Amino acid sequence: MIGPLTPLVPHFVAFHVLTLALWCAGLIALPLMLSRHDPAISQADYARIRRYTHFAYTLGVTPAAVLAVASGTVLVFLRDAFTPWMFLKLVFVGALVLTHGWVGHTVTSMEETQGLHQPPHPVLQPVAAFIPILAILFLVLDKPDFSELRFPHWLSQPQGGQLPFLAPSR
Ligand code: HEM
Fold this sequence. Notes:
By secondary structure, the protein is an all-alpha fold. Helices cover 67% and strands 0% of the residues. The chain contains five helices and no strands. The structure holds protoporphyrin IX containing FE. Protoporphyrin IX containing FE binds next to helix 1, helix 2, helix 3 and helix 4.
C-alpha cells in the first residue's frame, strides 16, 4: 500500500519484533517460574514467585502481546500482506494466544488455590509456546509460496448458492 505511513514500515517492523520478542520470551519464562510453585517451598518464596509471575503477566507479557498483535495488524495493511503464508501465520498466532490464556489461567489458579495448586509440568507450556513460535518464524522469514496447493473444487469455485438474507449492495 502506498500511503503517508509507508516510510514508517521499518519502524513498525522494529516495534513488532521488539514486542513479539517480549511476548514470546514471557511465554517461555513464565511457565518455568510457575513450575516452581511447589507447595513444598516456603511461604515467603511462594509469595515472592506469586507476585513476580502476576506482575510479569499483567504488566509485561500481556501488554507486549497486545502491542505485537496491533503492530502486526497495521503491518498487514502497510505491506499488503494478504497472502496464504500470512493466513497460516495467523492460525499459529491463534495457537500462541491460546497458550497465553493457558499460562494466565495457571497464574490465576496458583493465586486462588494457594496451598492446593499443583504446578503444571515444566515442559508442557514452554513446548506449547515454542511450536507455534518456530512455525511463525519459519513462515514469516521464508514466506513460502503456496500457489501450487490445489484446493477442492467446492472451496475454489462459486457454488451458485444463495445467502439466507439480503446482502447490502454497494
Ligand atoms: C496477529 C498477529 C500478527 C500479525 C497480524 C503479524 C503480521 C506481520 C506482518 C504483516 C509482517 C510484515 C511481513 C513482511 O511483509 O515482511 C510481520 C513481520 C514479522 N512478524 Fe508478525 N504478525 C503477528 C504476530 C507475530 C508473532 C506472534 C511473531 C513471532 C512469534 C511474528 C514474527 C514476525 C517477524 C519475525 C517479522 C519480521 C519479518 C521480516 O522483517 O522479515 N509476528 N508480521
